[in-house]
Amino acid sequence: MALSIQHLLGLEGVAKEDINRILDTADSFYEVLQREIKVVPTLRGKTIVNLFYEPSTRTRLSFELAEKRLSGSPLNFSASTSSVQKGESLKDTVRNIAAMKIDMIVVRHGAAGVPYFLTRCTDAVIVNAGDGLHEHPTQSLLDMMTIRRHFGRLEGLKVAIVGDIWHSRVARSNAWGMTTMGMDVVLCGPPTFLPQHTESLPVRVTDDMDTAVEGVDVIMMLRVQFERQGTGLFPSIREYRQRYGLDKERLSRLPKEVIVMHPGPINRGIELASNVADCEQSVILDQVTNGVAVRMAVLYLLGGGESA
Amino acid sequence: MPDSYGRVTFPVTPVDPVPPILITGGRVIDPANDIDDYLTVALSGGTICAVGKKIPEGFEAGVTIDAKGMWVVPGLVDMHVHLREPGREDKETIASGTMAAAAGGFTAVACMPNTTPALDEESKIRYVVQRSEGCPCRVYPVGAITEKLEGEKLAPFGEMVGAGAKAFSDDGRSVSNSYMMRNALNYSKSFNVPLICHCEDHDLTGQCHMNESAMSTRLGVRGIPSIAEEIVVARDIMIAEYTGARVHIAHVTTAGAVQIVREAKSRGAHVTCETCPHYFVFTDEDLATYDTNKKMNPPLRTPRDRAAVIEGLSDGTIDVIASDHAPHCSEEKDVEFAAAAFGVIGLETSLAAAITHLIDTNVLVPSHLVEKMSVAPNRVLGLQGGTLAASSVADITIIDPSCEWSVDSSRFFSKSRNTPFEGLTLRGAARYTILGGRIVFERR
User: Fold this and answer.
1) Tens digit of pLDDT for each residue in B111-162?
2) Does A308 touch chain B (CB under 8 A)?
3) Residues of chain B contacting residue A200, judged by C-beta atoms under 8 Å apart
4) Per residue in B53-81, is it b (16+ CB within 10 Å) or e — as a string?
5) Which member of A252, B51, B169, B409 has the greatest number of CB atoms within 10 A?
6) Looking at residue A305, what is its pLDDT?
7) Under an 8 A CB cutoff, do B217 and A200 touch?
8) The pTM is what?
9) Does the pLDDT value for residue A85 go beyond 70?
10) Which of B214, B289, B338 sits opposite A132 (nearest CB)?
11) B-contacting residues of A 142-201, CB under 8 Å?
């Protein structure tokens, strides 16, 4: 029943069987979440620390809810209310928290590789909730869960991920996870948003959006970060919207079966037109719902709780 | 240091006369005099008395070293180290760094000026020279090219040369402004000293922490592109050729940079260059778990770059092997990758890494290694060492090329532990280091 991995540091190298097991388990938790009483006792007595060094609404709430619905005891830590401001090192912070006898750490940090670093600082189970530009594995798992629930399969489906690929840990995790599951992944964005070296990723890359969306089943739009405007990466929001935005007109040229995804938060009117975000083809809120189930599955399978 | 792997003499107090030493049975490798033979070496009065088949008549040895199975070579020189004094004595001091150097087989090091304060004027050069008295390894300070290493105002080369500076560098940074670099190179000609150039286009490397490559894409780490190094290597060589000055390119790491130097040499430019052991041993693929002890600047490059560096060592494009010994304390290394300081230590592993990865792999023959670790750095810095000719100063390293040892930084003489070689097995080590005719290091 357990996974072959001890921590969830990323989806690179994670086996298809493990991903399937997480998605299957998430589907059963999804059923639990439809009940009136949405709580199961599987992580009773387990303490899970949510160690968030970067701002987050969705991911943090989603993990906390998942932990509570598994009857675990969440402990919340955010950089702004911690002794980080007193200059304590990450290692000291983690070792202090670990000394309080905790079981799992869910970590988000602005520096790539921090989840690896934590495995060297503590014996607790580590779950990556986003590390720098590296990976965001539970986001990819909830994306795959959403696609699988919609289409009934992953194998053979084609997805275009459009936007700021280089700065996106979601794109990296999906590149690994989705291709492991037999999907065809195309990454698309202006050349300044694409990595210089993409040969290490199992995907195709293009800077032309119309080429990218040809024959797709799924379009995933990534958030454009305003703060990058004027840094030489792209000239203006207007030009970006024209070339890489998804509006009704562009969507209408594709089959009605195509679904639209976005990891949030959305810049309405920039990468995604409002009437696309809210249209029938959008599964953006399903992603959020499934996020709780997928995180319950990950925590349950890695936390070694009692059987559901 | 009871658990260290050898004994370093410190401080080295003047003894008069120095007891005569006879070194017998060793393979004497002295490329400056075209010697590679099994010979006896006699030292007395701090100088080399004779090198030959026989013991000189009437020579009475105070100490006899049986060097059977070993190489007897002119003292090794590491022309690129950071001794951190003044300012960061918690990481390294001139005393601890020279002990590490002696234990690594070095009889001389050149120390970089990015201390606190920077070595940018006569009094600071003099301070380093004075602090190195009694140390088991000679210390040649490298002065700053510009005041405070800020790239804006030329530092007083002449006064610093007078105080003992042997070269100038803003190491750790490039002089960004080409006009300033032109002036610095032009001005350096009066003193016949090289400028040692750390080549990096800082506009291309901000917030970057590893090589830009397939690996940086995978790891989600902003990458330092190879062109950031190559653009400035090309620029500095072009300015040196234009002004007729001497330039030495520090830590060459990319295939492109090796090629730029190769072409410049074939045109007859006054250019020399160095690389470091970590660049011919490791690649960016060794960073898969974000090991901060493999984080340095310039960064570990791709396997293709590593191969080009080895090719450059083999064909003579790369003149010198230097360690870029950069001590950092654990608070600066045992942190998240992006927050970790750049730099690794190397004085105590450099020779073994070179023997294991260049000699045992048939890239270099021993005399070529001696060329790159003794003769060439002496020549670049305008020093008198690198030779075993009679009446030269008796700076000698006796190397056991076949002993295998496992790298354990807790036994290092350096104050810092940030080695990329931790736990690896290397072959070869300095058995004795002889400075001015006196044994200053003996390995257990």
Assistant:
1) 999 999 999 999 999 999 999 999 999 999 999 999 999 999 999 999 999 9
2) no
3) 214-215, 217-218
4) eeeeeeeebeeebebeebbbbbbbbbbbb
5) B169
6) 55
7) yes
8) 0.94
9) no
10) B338
11) 169, 172, 195-201
Structural domains of chain B, ranges and CATH numbers in brackets: 6-72+391-443 (2.30.40.10), 76-381 (3.20.20.140)
| Chain B residues with beta carbon closer than 8 angstroms to that of A135 | 220
Written out in words, the top-level CATH class of the domain with range A137-286 is: alpha beta
pLDDT of residue A81: 57
| Phi/psi at A168 (5° precision) | -110, 115
Average pLDDT value for residue range A165-194: 96
In three-state secondary structure terms, A81 is helix
On whether the CB atoms of residues B136 and B107 are closer than 8 A, the answer is: no
Q: What angle do CA A262, A264, A265 make, to 5 degrees?
A: 140
Q: Is A109 on the interface with B (CB under 8 A)?
A: yes
User: Would you call A116 and B338 a contact, using CB atoms and an 8 Å cutoff?
Assistant: no
Give pLDDT tens digits for A220-255: 999 987 776 667 888 888 999 999 999 999 999 999
Parallel, antiparallel, or unpaired for β B35-44 and B47-52? antiparallel
Q: What are phi and psi of A61, to 5 degrees?
A: -65, -40
**Taking CB atoms and an 8 Å limit, are B222 and A133 in contact across chains?**
yes
Percentage, residues of chain B above pLDDT 70 = 100
State the pLDDT at residue B2: 46
Of B213, B217, B336, the CB nearest to A111: B336
Domain at A16-133+288-303: CATH architecture: 3-Layer(aba) Sandwich (3.40)
Q: Average pLDDT, whole number, for chain B?
A: 97
pLDDT, chain A, mean? 93
A259 Cβ neighbours under 8 A, 6+ residues apart: A147, A150, A217, A218, A219, A281, A282, A283
Quick one: which of B59, B75, B52, B33 has its CA closest to B437? B75
List, by residue number, the catalytic residues of B.
Answer: 324
A82 pLDDT band (50/70/90 cuts)?
low
Q: What is the 3-state secondary structure (H, E, C) of chain B?
A: CCCCCEEECCCCCCCCCCCCEEEEEEEEEEHHHCEEEEEEEEEECCEEEEEECCCCCCCCCCEEEECCCCEEEECEEEEEECCCCCCCCCCCCHHHHHHHHHHCCEEEEEECCCCCCCCCCHHHHHHHHHHCCCCCCEEEEEECCEHHHCCCCECCHHHHHHHCCCEECCCCCCCCCHHHHHHHHHHHHHHCCCEEECCCCHHHCCCCCEECCHHHHHHCCCEECHHHHHHHHHHHHHHHHHHCCCEEECCCCCHHHHHHHHHHHHHCCCEEEEECHHHHHCCHHHHCCCCHHHCCCCCCCCHHHHHHHHHHHHHCCCCEECCCECCCCHHHHCCCHHHCCCCCCCCCCHHHHHHHHHHCCCCCCHHHHHHHHHHHHHHHHCCCCCCCCCCCECCEEEEEEEEEEECCHHHCCCCCCCCCCCCCEEEEEEEEEEECCEEEEEEC
